[in-house]
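FORM 7B: Structural annotation worksheet

SECTION A. Query
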Amino acid sequence: MREHPRTEDTPHPDVWTGRATNRVQWLLALAGAACVALGVQLAVDSAWTSGVTPLAMSVVGCIAAGLLVLFGTLAFVHVDLTLDKECLEVRCGHIGVPRRRIPLSEVVGADFTPLVTPRHWGGWGYRWRPEKGTAVVVRRGEGIVLRLGDGHTFTITVDNAESAVRVIRARLRTTGPGTTR
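SECTION B. Predicted structure
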């Protein structure tokens, strides 16, 4: 990770972007692709004489499980965070789904957290825990914790999270309560 020294007087960019990536997810995606390949192999190379129902269930099961693992892991290979003057947008994976857009008018505060782990949230992905709030966790490491006006929190793992928190806080100061956008 590169350090970007910044003083309080330095202006923040109009659009701040950040990303976090998890290369381990590619191994899980490979396992999903192997399941799909096994299902196709079963369908093509089997004699279909020992019973159609068990073989069809095996083929469909392998392909369905493989696609579920494949697309479920590829959706959380990385997370992109875009912060402009009005909102914060979180997009996951190559397709950008799931996606969450949070207007800065709904954000009360932002905090840097040096360590977010999948263990804290019950795994990788888009997570919700009643006592902790909502999170997008794609890897272990630094993150942002947004405190929202409705009392909930939203945590995102992203590289250079301290910089993002500084930008969010600066935008919240310039557009404080009662200020129109």
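SECTION C. Observations
The CA atoms of residues 2 and 129 lie 32 Å apart. The beta strands are 16-21, 78-83, 87-92, 99-103, 107-116, 125-129, 133-137, 141-148, 153-157.

SECTION D. Sign-off
Analyst initials: ____
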